[in-house]
Amino acid sequence: MHYFKLLPLSFLMFGLNSTLHAEQISLPSMSVEGISSEEIPYALPTLSIATPDTGDMIKRLPGANINSNGPLTSISQYRGLFGDRVNVLIDGVRISQAGPNRMDSPLSYLPSSRVADVALYRGIAPVSSGIETIGGTIMANSRKAEFASGQNAEFHGNASTGYADNGDTYYASVMASVATENHRFQIAGSIDRGDDLEFDGGYILPSEHERDTVGINYAFQSMGYELDLDIEHHATGNTGTIALPMDIMFARGENYKIKFSKELANGGKIKARINYQDAEHLMNNYTLRTPGMITRYALTDVESKGIHLSYVQSGWKVGLDADQAEHNSDISDPTNPMFWTKNFNDIERDRSSIFAEWSGQLNTDWKLESGIRLSRITSDSGTVGSSMAMMMGGMGTNTQILIDQFNGADRSQEDNLIDLTAVFTYKINMDLDIEFGLARKERAPSYQERYLWMPMESTSGLADGNNYIGNINLDPETAYQAEFGLDWHTSKAAISPRLFYHHINDYIQGTASMNMTANMISAMMGNPDPLQFNNVDAKLYGLDTNWFVAINNDWQLDGTISYVRGERRDTSDNLYRIAPLTARTMLSYVQTTWRVGFEAETVSAQNKVSSENNEKKTSGYAVYSLSGSYQANDSITLSAGVNNLFDREYSNHLGGYNRISNNPDLTQGDRIPGLGRSFYAGVNVNW
Fold it and tell me: Cys-Cys with 455: which of 184, 233, 394, 530 at CB 3.0–4.6 Å?
């Protein structure tokens, strides 16, 4: 009997509920022997099933989801924690956003048509995966060519293109390489374009998008040495972010990376990396949408640099990490050249850290993965100001008071963090493992949470419609995490459930502002009840699992289930923007060169909402999709399908709210609806 090889998530996940698919993959049929437990990190297989937004792939990982404020603005969420709490790595590097509202979220830097794989460390992320991993570590990696097997040059590449009728959306990407056994050079690029998207009741305005990327890579290897040089340019153009006060005019910049590794004679390995990023971002509230009473544009930028050094031998891994990010954000009025506000000025956030990790067998049945990381986070801000301080009356007086309070404060802050992890795995037999883990994880406040000196919505993409003011004296978040899970795998079926509990002290949450000056300014802006970032106590708990059943040689069922509950421990309120219970189920029929799939995404109602954030409840729904692919030969694969088959109108709880008052098909303050029916087709070519 031949069954499909069990991977962390089945190869047959080709019925994505998304706007667009870039490519399908070839599924080998093979017998299975010695099925192992779940891979770490848990990863989707190497594939390029894609939508314009890589976040739609992240959603397919158990426990993971995305907060969406626009078509290219996916903010990763894992087990109810999102934003700065989740350590998102793009090709191994943590990206710093130029926008204070995460409009250029890390996932937007890698188009899904160029994605090789996405992955996460299920549950407790190892300390080696990064600094500040309180919300886990998620990774997305781009396609990279391989070295050749000999000195003769080999030419390889990949090209894909596709179209979806919803939003008149299209994409194209290409990767071409030349390599010998010692040298490798590749160039890659992509374009994404789309008009405003549709739902069953009309159009989502604005939801157009455009993005271009170019990447160049050179690598050299010889006698255990490897050197890798990367340059990436990204340029997002006019892109709607209907859940935020402004839309993207551009988000562009470069990322540079140098990696070095050396295999030592004693069996150890040294790895080093240097990375640099320079990006700028322009947004406004009048080009893609009709402005309200006030027109604004904001120019923001980030410059960041980082280093990594590690040594691995005999189950041990020790190393150091350090990075620095500098942020600026200036707000202006196109109708009034005299208006200006220093939203964030000369913000600097530095992180330095050392870690040690050990993984190995305690005996024939027990395995331990343990680690410790010590980190120091320092942050500072320059002085701020605004022309609003020169206005007559209360607005000018109160603005000057806030300026004086902020500029007179001790803005230099330092936090010392300690992360501890221990994950035990007990092998019951060849098919079943039991896992139990404990951890202590910490996160220092973000620069928005500390240094937002005036009531505004520059909140790292919270998108709840509230004005916020920062708190320089915030304490770090400290989470005590516990996890229990099973990994049961056979050649015909598998399931890997995880139960988890997070007890978080000093959780950073917006609460009612007690700053009367800020409250008066916010009321003059039309938001009389602003929030201030403060420390509270919280807990999150739940269950997530992936599962697989090979019905026979032709038919397969697989899916994921994710549930998380987030609560305040100091009050009876719930945490904001927590994903509801979600299940994905795929029925697949597979033949040697073609396959079809029928998928159901079922989402329960979310009634446990945050009153502090004025969060609205959402109803449950089910959305169905059909997909198919045909492998014409070893090089060409065709794909087609339809998402939201029955054109169901629904609202995604993590989708944000419509901010635009004169949107003809949506009421201001309503949840952004999910996408309507979309037919798509694509072709992928390898050579």
Answer: 530
> What superfamily in CATH does domain 42-686 come from?
TonB-dependent receptor, beta-barrel domain (2.40.170.20)
DSSP 128: G
Q: What pLDDT shows up at residue 18?
A: 35
Give me the torsion for CA of 259, 414, 478, 570, rounded to 10°. Answer: -140
Residue 55 phi, psi (nearest 5): -60, -30
Q: What residue segments make up the domains of the chain, in order of their start?
A: 42-686
Tokens encoding 619:
């109803």
Q: How far is CA 354 from CA 32, 307, 321, 417, 419, in A?
A: 41, 12, 6, 11, 11
Residue 37's pLDDT is 55
Longest alpha-carbon distance in the chain: 83
pLDDT tens per residue across span 153-186: 999 999 999 999 999 999 999 999 999 999 999 9
Q: Which residue has the tokens 């996890």?
A: 483
Cis (ω within 30 of 0) for the bond into 41?
yes
Q: pTM, whole model, 2 decimals?
A: 0.92
User: Which stretch of DSSP H or E encloses residue 222?
Assistant: strand 209-222
What sign has the CA pseudo-torsion 92, 93, 99, 102? positive
CA distances (Å), 216 to each of 188, 254, 319, in order?
7, 11, 28
**Residue 310: its pLDDT value, please?**
98
Query: If we measure between CA atoms, which residue out of 658, 683, 685 comes closest to residue 669?
Result: 658
Dist CA 616 CA 465 (whole Å)? 12
CB under 8 Å to 223, separation ≥6 — which residues?
none
Q: What is the pLDDT of residue 39?
A: 62
Query: Among all chains, which residue has been given the structure tokens 């003059």?
Result: 524
Classify 279 as helix, strand or coil. strand
Reference 107, options 61, 140, 65, 60; nearest CA is: 140
**In sequence order, what DSSP letters do the residues of 71-120 get, joined into one string?**
TT--EEEETTEEGGGSEEEETTEEPPPSSTT-TT-GGGGS-GGGEEEEEE
* Distance, CA of 169 to CA of 74 (rounded, Å): 18
The Cβ of residue 662 has, within 10 Å, a number of other Cβ atoms equal to 11
